[in-house]
């Protein structure tokens, strides 16, 4: 049984193209032995990370105040979901050349020293080894491989940092450049998703 954690991040919910691609991937996996957990970080509406919340994590669980327990539970629960997953699926639209701020707030809570990564004499080491990640990225323009595509290196670096080094991207671009361009891009992306699914089956 493969446990899949799906993280949605679009403000457009079910109307989002990144959501459509992630759901298409899940549909293409139907029939295989999988369990799916879904998290919509836009709906979670996580606040910007504060020093108070970070201090709650750093306080021993037995010594936390009731307020610190409440603050720490947010991150603890998200990390537990991630640790339990074999595969992470990220549905990521591009907002102003970057990832949604809601996804950044989520990342801030799953990057936990001593839990999802650790520091060593030779540098940081990720602790979530053996997991795979699929990123379904939707963009209004065409940015893949260019200077304005800050998402791909950032997501790659972040996932690698916490130990997830098997990362694959599928892009749907030019979605705001006319209906024909959008339809062609979505079709091409879905074709690549089928290829990914076939490789998983192999």
Automatic annotation (TrEMBL):
Residues 3-194 form the Flavodoxin-like fold domain. It catalyses: N,N-dimethyl-1,4-phenylenediamine + anthranilate + 2 NAD(+) = 2-(4-dimethylaminophenyl)diazenylbenzoate + 2 NADH + 2 H(+); 2 a quinone + NADH + H(+) = 2 a 1,4-benzosemiquinone + NAD(+). FMN binds at residues 10, 16-18, 94-97, 138-141. One of its GO terms (molecular function) is FMN binding. Its cofactor is FMN. Homodimer. PANTHER family: FMN-DEPENDENT NADH-AZOREDUCTASE 1, FMN-DEPENDENT NADH:QUINONE OXIDOREDUCTASE. This is FMN dependent NADH:quinone oxidoreductase. It comes from Alteromonas naphthalenivorans.
């Amino acid at each position: 049984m493969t446990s899949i954690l799906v993280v949605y991040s679009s403000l457009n919910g079910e109307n989002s193209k990144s959501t459509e691609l992630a759901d298409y991937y899940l549909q293409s996996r139907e029939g295989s032995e999988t369990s799916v957990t879904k998290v919509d970080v836009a709906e979670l509406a996580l606040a910007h990370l504060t020093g108070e919340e970070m201090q709650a994590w750093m306080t021993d669980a037995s010594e936390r105040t009731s307020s610190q327990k409440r603050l720490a539970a947010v991150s603890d629960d998200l990390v537990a979901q991630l640790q339990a997953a074999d595969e992470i699926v990220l549905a990521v639209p591009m907002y102003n050349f970057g990832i949604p701020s809601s996804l950044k707030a989520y990342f801030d809570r799953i990057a936990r020293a001593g839990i999802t990564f650790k520091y060593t004499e030779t540098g940081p080491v990720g602790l979530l080894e053996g997991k795979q990640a699929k990123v379904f990225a939707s963009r209004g323009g065409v940015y893949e491989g260019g200077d304005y595509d800050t998402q791909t290196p950032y997501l790659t670096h972040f996932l690698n940092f916490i130990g997830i080094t098997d990362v694959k991207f599928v892009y749907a671009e030019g979605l705001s450049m006319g209906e024909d361009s959008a339809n062609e891009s979505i079709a091409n992306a879905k074709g690549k998703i089928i290829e990914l699914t076939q490789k998983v089956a192999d």
